[in-house]
Specification:
By secondary structure, the protein is an alpha/beta fold. The chain has 7 helices and 9 strands, in the order βαβαβαβαβββββααα. It has a single domain, classed as 3-Layer(aba) Sandwich (Rossmann fold). A hairpin with a 7-residue loop joins strand 7 and strand 8.
């Protein structure tokens, strides 16, 4: 597959995506959407990954490039391209599908339990009904009309949702490595306050061992996306 990933901050760790792409012989093109957006990429890509970011999707006046990224993502969805949104990326998809994005009652920072619903989606097939994932977000959104709620957590009612069979939004971070978490501690330590769903840096470090399982779960999702692409191609040919 040809994969395009939008990366929104310099120290975001793309190891999980690069390692999967390398093992499978896929092409991975990582771009900074604040620098360049090219509509020609739509023709070349099979999968768009919208990574997380410290900004909010409703901060269009502060980040002038957001309009171009939203237009590109909206076109990708309309064209039936496979789209995977993570945290900020999931929030962008939700907004594009008509749902408001706003501050959640609680921030989630640290390792939190994700509960799957009874709704099924092929990209999540084979994952456990509960999994623990790293989280770092303060925004949330309502479930967009015409989508399926796939997962939730105690503090956040929408942790995963799907639009048709080609778009998946994940509020949680399966991809984050311990090295990236350490950078987040260094850059955003002011967010690690005493709050119900915010863990201390030390508590997060104590659970670094869960990162390997999280990345394995992400790779499983990417495997399922690739399988769908193969099945679609075989159906066409």
């Amino acid at each position: 597959m040809n994969i395009l990933a939008f990366k929104h901050f310099a120290f975001d760790d793309d190891y999980a995506f690069r390692s999967w792409a390398s093992l499978g012989g896929h092409r991975l093109d990582i771009r900074d959407p604040s620098v360049e957006i090219n509509s020609e990429w739509l023709d070349e890509m099979d999968l768009l990954i919208i990574c997380g970011g410290p900004m909010s999707v409703y901060e269009d006046e502060r980040y002038s490039w957001l309009a171009s990224e939203k237009q590109f993502v909206g076109q990708a969805i309309q064209l039936g391209k496979k789209v995977l949104g993570i945290c900020f990326g999931a929030q962008m998809i939700a907004e594009l599908l008509g749902s408001p994005v706003y501050r959640n009652a609680y921030k989630e920072i640290g390792w939190h339990t994700i509960n799957r619903t009874q709704e099924r989606h092929s990209w999540l097939e084979g994952l456990p009904e509960q999994l623990v994932s790293f989280q770092w977000h303060g925004d949330t959104f309502d479930l967009p009309e015409g989508t399926r709620l796939l997962a939730y957590s105690e503090a956040c009612k929408v942790q995963a949702f799907a639009y048709l069979e080609h778009v998946l939004g994940l509020q949680f971070h399966l991809e984050t490595t311990p090295a990236c978490m350490e950078s987040m501690f260094a850059h955003w330590s002011s967010e690690l306050i005493d709050a119900p769903y915010i863990q201390t840096a030390e508590r997060i470090r104590q659970q670094f061992g869960q990162s390997g399982q999280s990345i394995k779960a992400l790779h499983h999702i990417l495997d399922r996306i690739h399988l769908q692409a193969i099945e679609t191609e075989e159906g066409v040919t």
